[in-house]
């Protein structure tokens, strides 16, 4: 499936310091490629996830609000991107709160060619690490724009969604604490 991706895009994603995934807009939005940072974050290798929808990482987590935001992103052609936090699970079953950023990579005719997503574990992070992630993602997106332009693909939207996320960190910590709390049996 990675053969569907332009070589420059594959090389770019592989070299990124940000956990990245690229999915097809067709059918159930199967993953076409994930990079090593994604594999390090989730424990899943590229070969284990290509062809699957990324929702398998959610297992049975509720994520109702995040799912609604993601569905709105998919269903609203003019919506350029989405940024939300949701509970995911690593291959070993460990839960983490994923700060997901997704954007549409479009053909020149405006049709969606790929979904481009980055992931960041905000479960136990600090605001300064999230700021570093935001800066790395901004840099990544900035480098992606000219590359996509050369291949006839447009990164739709802007970097407006790359903003201060201290509230998301606090919410993630609260959510994760409810997942790991054990009932008082005493």
3D structure, described in words:
The chain is 38% helix and 24% strand. The longest helix has 24 residues, at 127-150. It has 186 residues and is of the alpha+beta class. The protein has one domain: PAS domain (Beta-Lactamase, 2-Layer Sandwich). It is globular, with a radius of gyration of 16 Å. Residues 154-171 and 182-186 have low confidence and may be disordered. A hairpin with a 4-residue loop joins strand 4 (95-107) and strand 5 (112-121). The chain contains six helices and six strands. It holds the Pfam family PAS_9. Residues 20-53 form the PAS domain. Keywords: Chromophore, Flavoprotein, FMN. This is PAS domain-containing protein.
SSE layout:
Layout (H helix, E strand, L loop, with lengths): L6 H9 L3 E5 L7 E4 L1 H7 L3 H4 L14 H12 L5 E9 L5 E13 L4 E10 L5 H24 L2 E3 L10 H15 L6
Antiparallel strand pairs: 1-2, 1-5, 3-4, 4-5, 4-6
Computed over alpha carbons, the radius of gyration is 16 Å
- The quaternary state of the protein chains shown equals single chain
CATH topology: Beta-Lactamase
Q: Given the structure, what is the number of helices? A: 6
CATH architecture: 2-Layer Sandwich
Mind summarizing the main beta sheet?
6 strands, antiparallel
What structural class should be given to the helix and strand makeup?
alpha+beta
Name of the CATH homologous superfamily: PAS domain
Q: How confident overall, as mean pLDDT?
A: 78
Relative helix content:
25-40%
Q: What is the terminal-to-terminal distance? A: 53 Å
- Supply the CATH class: Alpha Beta
Q: Tell me the strand percentage band.
A: 15-25%
Tell me the overall shape: globular
Secondary-structure element order, as H and E? HEEHHHEEEHEH
Low-confidence stretches: 154-171, 182-186
Protein name: PAS domain-containing protein
Keywords: Chromophore, Flavoprotein, FMN
Organism: Paracoccus shanxieyensis
Pfam families: PAS_9
């Amino acid at each position: 499936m990675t053969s569907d991706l332009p070589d420059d895009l594959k090389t770019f994603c592989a070299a990124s310091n940000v956990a990245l995934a690229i999915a097809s807009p067709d059918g159930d939005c199967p993953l076409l490629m994930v990079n090593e940072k994604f594999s390090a974050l989730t424990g899943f290798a590229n070969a284990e996830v290509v062809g699957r929808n990324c929702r398998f990482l959610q297992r049975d987590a509720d994520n109702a609000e995040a799912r609604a935001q993601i569905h709105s992103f998919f269903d609203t052609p003019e919506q350029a991107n989405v940024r939300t936090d949701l509970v995911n699970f690593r291959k070993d079953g460990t839960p983490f709160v994923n700060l997901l950023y997704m954007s549409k990579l479009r053909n020149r005719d405006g049709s969606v060619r790929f979904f481009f997503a980055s992931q960041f574990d905000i479960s136990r992070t600090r605001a300064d690490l999230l700021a570093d992630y935001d800066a790395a993602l901004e840099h990544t997106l900035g480098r992606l724009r000219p590359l996509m332009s050369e291949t006839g693909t447009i990164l739709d939207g802007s970097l407006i969604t790359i903003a201060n996320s201290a509230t998301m960190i606090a919410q993630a910590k609260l959510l994760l604490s409810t997942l790991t709390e054990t009932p008082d049996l005493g």
